[in-house]
Specification:
Blueprint (H helix, E strand, L loop, with lengths): L48 H19 L3 H14 L4 H13 L3 H14 L4 H13 L3 H14 L4 H35 L13 H5 L4 H4 L21 H14 L2 H9 L6 H5 L5 H15 L4 H11 L5 H7 L2 H15 L8 H10 L3
Helix pairs in contact: 1-2, 2-3, 3-4, 3-5, 4-5, 5-6, 6-7, 11-13, 13-14, 13-16, 16-17
């Protein structure tokens, strides 16, 4: 300042200009990426062509395992599918079916939840979640899901039958709650006896407990509740309704329910009701139900059903697909039929029908 005098400021180097928009940004930590999850749609990149081929192969293998009722291996295949692509709703519903078959109801519910996150109108996911809730004995949630299923598709017979059953479980639960309250009230009345007053002979607590509804006394620890109550069977009006009922029966392998269905079904209607949907497991279920549940009660009805079953579409194909052991079951049924005297058919009629079954 002493050297340059009053003009010292003019000799300084110019200060570089800073754009007014270039504000200094505050430091923020980078959000941590959560670990990959099957249900997280952003957890992994899009699958490559090779991955898609592997996905398709695994899915087909899983589907075949389900057809073979090998649910553990099917579950493994579907889980491998989800490692490649976790966005396909069908894989979750398929795996949920496996979990249901293995009585792993919580896992089945979770898979249905994921499927409904992808497609909130998926009927299979909603129906199978209803079954999972039922297995977990959460009957109100099961009821809610079944009502939603019927809102989406009112023609699903299985859902109607399950709804009736869940309502019965809810009624039993309500009745049991009321009974327990009444039992407690009665126990208190017995206990509160005034001094000098003789206690009236009454039933013990153990005797009181026998009033509990029969359904509540059943052991439900060995499987899902659907196996503890009879499946309600109504007469189907067409092939679609028959198929829905027979599918529900097949899921439970319920030969007694199948026998009830055959009892209310006209034998002459069987080919029309089966249409072109006769499968190996259905064919065998019909044979076993006739053999185990109806031959002793109504041999004439058994003969008529066997006669009209032989006229069903795909009958000849079924004969080529059944195993030696299954053929032996059919032959045993015909032997029982031959040994049962009946005025509605002769021994020659049975032998002629037996030849149609290639026995």
């Amino acid at each position: 300042m002493n050297l340059d005098g009053p003009s010292w400021r003019e000799k300084l180097s110019p200060i570089p200009a800073v754009p007014t928009a270039a504000h200094v940004r505050a430091w923020q930590p980078v959000a941590k990426t959560p670990p990959n999850q099957e249900g997280d749609s952003c957890s992994r990149p899009q699958p490559s062509i090779a991955d898609e081929k592997m996905f398709k192969t695994l899915k087909e293998e899983g589907n075949q395992y389900v057809k073979d009722k090998n649910y553990k291996d099917a579950l493994s295949k579907y889980s491998d599918c989800l490692k490649i692509n976790n966005k396909e709703c069908a894989i979750y519903t398929n795996r949920a079916l496996c979990y249901l078959k293995l009585c792993q109801f919580e896992e089945a519910k979770q898979d249905c939840d994921r499927a409904l996150q992808i497609d909130d109108g998926n009927v299979k996911a909603c129906y199978r979640r209803a079954l999972a809730h039922k297995g977990l004995k959460d009957y109100q949630k099961s009821l809610n899901d079944l009502n939603k299923v019927l809102l989406l598709d009112s023609s699903i017979v299985e859902a109607k039958m399950e709804l009736e059953e869940v309502i019965r479980f809810l009624n039993i639960k309500d009745n049991t709650t009321s009974f327990n309250k009444e039992k407690e009230r009665r126990k208190i009345e017995i206990q509160e006896v005034s001094e000098g007053q003789e206690e009236e002979p009454g039933r013990t607590t153990e005797e009181l407990s026998t009033d509990c509804p029969v359904s509540e006394n059943r052991d439900t620890t060995n499987g899902p509740p659907e196996f503890c109550e009879k499946l309600p069977i109504t007469k189907p009006n067409n092939a679609y309704e028959f198929g829905q009922v027979i599918n529900a029966i097949s899921m439970r392998n319920d030969k007694e329910a199948c026998a009830r269905l055959l009892t209310i079904t006209e034998p002459k209607d069987l080919p029309v009701l089966l249409s072109n949907k006769l499968e190996g497991d259905t064919f065998l279920l019909l044979i076993q139900s006739l053999k185990n549940n109806l031959i002793g009660k109504d041999p004439s009805l058994v003969y008529q059903h066997l006669l009209y079953l032989s006229k069903a579409e795909r009958f000849k194909m079924m004969l080529t697909l059944i195993s030696k052991g299954q053929k032996e079951q059919i032959e045993q049924l015909f032997d029982d039929l031959s040994d049962t005297p009946n005025k509605h058919f002769t021994l020659e009629d049975v032998q002629a029908l037996k030849r149609k079954y290639e026995l």
